[in-house]
Amino acid sequence: MATAPTAAAIDGKYSATSGSNIRSNLRHSQQRPPNTPHTPQHSRGISSFASTSSQGSLRNDEDAIIFEIGSRWLRAGFEGDSTPMCSVGFGPEESRRVGDYRGWARNNSSQAEEKTRQEPVDPDFWASPYELWRMDLRDMDLGLVEDRIERAFRETYNKYLLTDAGTSRLVLVLPSLMPHPLLSSVLSTLFSRWRFPSITLLPGAAMATAAAGLRAALVVDIGWAETTVTGVYEYREIAIKRSTRGMRSLTTAMGRFLSRLARKDNNEAQEGQPAALEAISVDFEYCEDVVNRFAWCRPCGHDEESTGQDEEEPSDPRLVSKKIVSIPSPSTPGLNYIELPFGSLAEPVEQALFAQGLADCVLDDQEKPLHVVVYNTLLALPPDIRGTCMSRIIFVGGGAHIPGIRRRTIQEVQALVDQYGWSPVRGKVVDEQLRKLQDLRLSKQPPPAAQQPEPTHEEKAEEQDFVEQKLRRNNRDKDLKPFVHGMLRDVESLGAWAGASLVTALKVRGLVEIEREKYVQHGLAGASRDLDTHVPDRRSGLRAGDRSSWTLAGWG
Amino acid sequence: MSRPFPYTYISCPCVERPVSDPSRKKETSPRKGSSQPAPEINDNDDEEEEKDFDPRSPRANFSLYPPEQLLYCEDCHQIKCPRCITEEIVCWYCPSCLFETPSSMVRSEGNRCARNCFSCPICTAPLAVSTLENVSGSGSQQGPWVLSCGYCMWTTLDIGIKFDKPTNIRNQLSKMTESSRGRQMSRAYGDLKSPLSPLATAYSTVDGPEVPPDDGKPPADEDPAVLGPDARFAALKAFYRNQLSETSASPNDPLGTDFGAGFSSPGALNRIMSLYTSSTLSGLYGGNSKKSKPKPLMMREAQTASEGLKLAASDAEDTIIQRMASDDCGWEGLASSEQRVFQFPEARFVEDLLPLPTLLRTKRSKRCKSCKHILVKPEFKPQSTRFRIRLIALSYIPLTTIRPLAVSPSSGVTSSTTLLAAPTPDLNALQPLQPIQILLTLKNHMFDPVRVTLGTPSVTPGAVATKVTILCPQFDIGANSDVWDEALQASNPADQRSSRSGLTGGYEKVAEAGKVWDKGRNWTTVVLEVVPGLLERKTGTLNTKEKKDEEDAKDARHARDATSDGGWSDSDENETTPPPGHGLGLETQSSPAPAQPDEDVLEIPVFVRMEWDSENQMEQPVAKGKPEMVKRELAYWMVLGVGRIEY
Hints:
By secondary structure, chain A is of the alpha/beta class. Helices cover about 40% and strands about 10% of the residues of chain A. In chain A, α6 packs across α7 (about 180-195), α9 crosses α11 (about 285-295) and α9 (about 245-265) runs antiparallel to α13 (about 345-355).
């Protein structure tokens, strides 16, 4: 109750206008006091000395701006909003010269452009104009990345955010693993171009967890360049595994598929060069559009009827994939349509992400299929955390929008667990031994695989139940559901951007907050390696303005 | 190129001052690496002399600007591109209704027009508010209203939305979408607003007798997918706030210090107290248990839909797949990537798309980044197109225009017929290895005479090596004096006029090295000799880097060979015979298109350096009768887009 006037005063700027607005309601009406008397929990009013100006006019109180940067897209918006204001791609259109309006004249352009598009391209070069960066910096021009970031930020501010750049705090949501030169380029560009007082870095996986309302999760980020599977526990990244099977490989696979169709369409027989067969002759944007619209994924075990994973309607997927859909013809996207079975559009997905038809042994470590990466990450986690994380699987990233992909992944992981249990040891000898052991054992245990997880689960369940009960008794929270663990479960997240917005709006201070002066003096080298530095508390009276050192935390 | 030939681009000199990365700098020199002021122009020159500007490098796209888009800072005496200015927003307005939005409202309206301006979610054309005559029947203006697109004929009826009144559409729409996006959503809102909601009471400790806690929850659990993203976000936020206030009851709980301390305890007072009683750090590692905490409340995760938890519905993906495959959906029924960009992330089908309120636009004043001098200051009113201050670069740097000189037969066979027929080379199809002459005119807009030095690499960078020679690289341009001055001074303007067209009387003017082609009051024309390089055809189909480099070298050789024997000076016949060496490329041709887009565009980088004496008006306001004269310099790279080389 006590905070209501304070909050109103702080947000006077907004509440004055809240009669007709939509978004501010969303943001500020939730600042409702808890119904027991409390110390005012809105730190803005009282606790932090630097921001006592309760007029909301000081820079500190201005809403931070949150950018999420990936290799393909940039999302930007204000803290406290549920969705970003915009998401901007890094395509060739974005890297044209100023005053070059070729992209707009695309429709009435001559045949010449059509021709250049038809030219088969090496898959590696096919997608690279659309990427901001690659994590492999060996042949990347960092200066170009700086240029593109600068332009993207400037245009985002001017077109979508509509505030003066550089006046308020900046929050960057970044992948939790970034090469230092790249990170340094990004920060240097931003700091030298605009006068951001500080830049906070937030890791994407933890933010996705926060946006799901969880504290521990297994975040499966099916991103452009790679898929990362991150085990997050208490907002900490515990284990990360990654695979190059991401949206790029999917789009490339779809491109190959469509190119094959186009070649068939044109009756071109180019058996001679295998390179030409692998090359992609379709337009990237067209191909991405096909992926966005029509890519889907069959449920597990659809091809082999025997291993039916108790689908609700086992016949239905097959029926669906027999359906004929028409998509614009890959050879002449503007003119004709071709018809093809719906199921064929699921094939690139299954090949690219699940390595269908390839044995596990032929795959390199960096190109494990999705479900194997998920399984391996879970395996790498300590059992307790594994139990927690496996029932909190979050799918984010571009690939998470492909229908069917979550179910498929979870089913595949389940199958792996059923088959092997939680053990990395495979092979004939092991199987043999287990069989022998099983023969020796008189009790009728379930197959050896399942025997491993079960005891731990039971124990854990008991243990946790006991603690839970006690906790619940203490908390007097009768409504709380028991802690879900030990089963595979898919939880939806609002995404890393929304998570960052949420966290920032709650005035939680990130671990990595880079202040302008400090950075400008020493750059990344100024970050202290000492991870034990006392974490500054934004809410406490110990205002961290005098912090002498800053850290890169996970990025260090 | 999208710009018609010929065109000019100017590379802002700010590329020469790269982003200062402090850590990199520190390794090389210990000097302070803050945003350094613009270095002296002399320094700049030396650096630039070392490496030629390559208009084809991918980075060049970010530093090249059409001259009319550049600004000029009078304090720094430097060209300013959008990268070296800072901007301040003067006003916000809707581009379709031109209504100004006060700055306090901009954020709350989501940077979009709050009135009736919408753009079509299908084709982005502006939507019009129109009545539904057929439904309303009699009352012509009373009927329900819809938004309709005049371009693609989409209406809000397609998504089942009608409006009661023709005004304030945005409010109506947001109400409708809120409710349609889930009955749950309004409920969640209601919950969050009332202090006695189950959300608030579920975790509050003692009281809460009048709670109606459980009536709302079961449906929420059964049907969690209905919570829209906005509502979910709000729910999550409320949940976290609640948790924060809950857990802040314990002064230093174990989790608080774990994660930035922020998630746990806003109880600042408590924290300050505990500063003196116990060290926060000792509580970090297990020290907690020893101290008898009455109840170490832990933050927990969201567990119900009303708290923002959303479990993936098992059949949601199935239904989506079914719908995608169904006959009435098809390609057109699915939203394209472009259409989805500004929609809710879940929007997948065309029916999910909502009309988008028009994005606001801003008028911005611009300042020089290094000296904060105002460069552009527009009028405040959105309707006004005038500027209070606008220092555009074109009033300081010479305006460059190029045009091809009519191809003329050699001077010996001049006759009137050939003169008339003398064709201007087609800039969209320049013949390789056939020299052309280009008139480069620089027009001075300053009131001081300018001395200009031009420089260009003799062979253009890139795969196609074109030889370029500036016949007169150094010249003066007169001051932009009053037009009447010229009229009074000029002896015979008629003569000048005629000479401009390239021929005076009967004899033909020939470009001479070291001589200015033509000169006027404030302009000077010089001739550029250009021998377009040979465009190498691709043999393979893949364009890899190595190949390009290889070709690069080959091309350069070609051009050199070719020009040495088939130079411009003695090429009598212009039209048909390909010069020697031309055939080499043709044999290997397989595909007609150049591998790199725009590889065939002939762009000439030209380094412009201008010197002039100007009044030193900044430092010393008019103290004496004759103001002090200061020598000024300006140097920049310019790119002349001459044409496209035919292949």
